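We close this part of the discussion by returning to an individual protein. In the encoding step, the backbone of a single protein was reduced to a row of integers, each denoting a local shape. The sequence in question and its structure tokens are set out directly beneath this paragraph.
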Amino acid sequence: MSVAAEIRRRLETLAPLRLDLQDESAQHAGHAGAAPGGDTHWKLTIVSDAFAGNSTIARHRMIYRALGDLMQHPIHALSISAKAPGEIDA
């Protein structure tokens, strides 16, 4: 299973209404943590009812928990935008 597919699979525990995932590894070639095949630097936009009433830090912790050991390897960097429904920018 690809890293992207595994990220998506694990984040299903948060029942996302929207989940956009972009591999930005190519933009970080030569930087710390970058691997030749990519799959190291990610941008995540996720909308879930699970985030309602939670702070940004709590939302990020929920995502880190869902991703588990992927946060150690292969993910080196993860940019997160985590919103509850109704907080989505127009």
Observations:
- The chain has one domain: 3-83.
- The chain is about 25% helix and 20% strand.
